[in-house]
Amino acid sequence: MYNMNPDLESILFQDNPWLLNKEPSKEPLSLWLESHLPDPYIPRGVGASMEHRWGRTSRAHLVIGPRQAGKSTVLWAHLAKRSEPVVFIDCEQQLVRQWCSSAPLFLRDLEKLVDSSVALFFDEIQHLEEGGLFIKGLVDRRQSAPVFVTGSSSFHLGARTRESLAGRVTRSRLLPFSLSEVTSQDTGAPLIKSRKKKEAFERHVTVGGYPNAWLSEAPEPILRELVEAFVLRDASDLFKIARPETFRKLLSLLARQVGSLVNLSEWASILGVSRDTVRSYLSILEESHLVGTLQPFVGGRRSEITSRPKVYLMDNGLRSLLTRDFRPLTQRVDKGPCLENWVYTELAKSFRYTVPINYWRSTSGAEVDFVVVLGEEILAVEVKASSIRHPRLPRSTRSFIEAYRPVKVLMVNLFLDQTEVLDKTEVKWLLPWELSNEITKMIND
After folding, report:
1. Rounded distance, CA 54 to CA 172, Å?
2. Residues in the chain, pLDDT under 50
3. Is CATH 3.40.50.300 correct for 6-173?
């Protein structure tokens, strides 16, 4: 009779104490599930939007995003709400990785522990050698219970198996806290809530939204450890990068050039590596959800830039760390790039994978910071961190309105909050802390 490795058994029983209860009751199970939630727990928007899909048993439900963004927590919250048995599997453990090398052999062992109706939760699956193929095998052979998966990078998980996972996986991307998430529990009269949101924005634009950093009174060391973990563990070990210090320098370079057009040759010269190396590193940063790359919006005019992308960091706290500046926004000499990067992160969190975010720029230099196509409607977003007392549109914005007739233009700024109409386009001068509300309205409409 086959016996499981005793050390592997110990890991599984330690991680899943409910397995040892002869008659597991709802109360101990619920307490175990809820014990994985932090205090305080801040609800995540992705959980609310995905719960109806996470109940499907014929799929694996994959939550991807940067390390320490709260991927495991959002699934623990969902599982605690279900209050049903689940087997937790920590893919960082060496014995677990060996166990998960073959779906049929894994399932052979699993049937000695639980019946086929029990859900599975694989945490940090990027550590498996062939994570995508393994999940494919599980879904094909075990469709009576959902499979939940987290991964800090889609690079390894999907590199060779994305096609085979089609129809077998739901994907959700979880980024660090958005401003709307960290203020979702605020109460009080409208004026008080608005004041609280403004105060939260002033911290969010500097500290960013990584949960541990946001909830800490000393976020800088936490963010430093996060960068070191990525550079030394993910970059060196997972992605086999031979020059981690160059990789670190690229991150710092990107932090100072957010919103600029990508110039691989210039960056390669600064870093002392080839263009192909910079391109490879940039791809890894994007796949790891630390960097977002924007392609130009092409509306058919010959005078448009059509090839060079822009790049932003996915969290302002990381940018503050990499630029060594945690001062409030109003005291910073780079408050323009700082606010622009923050607006990008909020747009990315609002739209997730649903629609791409672009920028527009003509060969003559006219530019709109962000362009989002929602069906047949166009949304343009401009960011102005300079002192503005009167609503006067830049010439670039007027040119874009004349050419493309966007349904709405959001002028995100620090002073004005008013609306006007120009050639049937609604132009809304918007305070940053009201951005998420405006985007939510557009998505729901």
Report:
1. 10
2. 1, 158-159
3. yes
According to the model, what pLDDT value does residue 189 have?
Answer: 87
pLDDT at 301: 63
The single residue listed with the structure tokens 């937790």 is 88
65 Ramachandran zone, left/alpha/beta (phi>0; psi -120 to 50)? left
Place of tokens 């939630």: 37
Q: Which CATH number fits domain 180-444: 3.40.50.300, 1.10.10.10, 2.60.40.10, 3.40.50.150?
A: 1.10.10.10
Q: Are 360 and 371 in contact (CB under 8 A)?
A: yes
Give Rg (Cα) of the chain: 23
- Strand residue runs (E) in 15-129: 60-64, 86-90, 119-123
Q: What residue segments make up the domains of the chain, in order of their start? A: 6-173, 180-444
Q: What local confidence, expressed as pLDDT, does residue 24 receive?
A: 54
Q: Which two tokens stand for residue 319?
A: 């940018």
**Residue pointed to by tokens 């996060």:** 226
Q: Whole-angstrom Cα distance, residue 177 to residue 167?
A: 29
Tell me which amino acid residue 358 is: N
pLDDT tens digits, 142-172: 878 889 999 876 655 544 555 567 778 888 8
Q: What global pTM score does this model have?
A: 0.91
Q: What is the token pair recorded at 256? A: 């100072």
